[in-house]
Inverse folding.
């Protein structure tokens, strides 16, 4: 489930919402059955709130969308991919504390 300020993206909307975004984008690849994804959800929502207007935050359910995760070689979830100007600049796989994500977001926005 996407929190406030978090966009749900699909294979159909990914290019428009993420690759063509003027702002840098953080995409959270997740699934309903994934425990670490559930634990990471509130952290991602917090990042979205903290960087409103500077960073677009999106979530993609990998069970409902197969093309995009395979295009980016997503093997394990949760996976966070950081995009700038339509290209992946960084990624995190697995559960990490918020400061790790903040550090990468700051680098992305620098």
């Amino acid at each position: 489930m996407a929190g406030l300020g978090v966009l749900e993206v699909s294979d159909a909307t990914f290019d428009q919402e993420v690759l063509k975004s003027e702002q840098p984008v953080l995409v959270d690849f997740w699934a309903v059955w994934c425990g670490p994804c559930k634990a990471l959800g509130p952290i991602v929502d917090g990042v979205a709130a903290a960087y409103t207007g500077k960073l677009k935050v999106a979530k993609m359910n990998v069970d409902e969308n197969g093309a995009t995760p395979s295009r980016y070689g997503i093997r394990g979830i949760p996976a966070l991919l950081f995009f700038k100007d339509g290209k992946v600049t960084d990624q995190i796989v697995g559960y990490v504390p918020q400061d790790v994500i903040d550090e990468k977001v700051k680098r992305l926005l620098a």
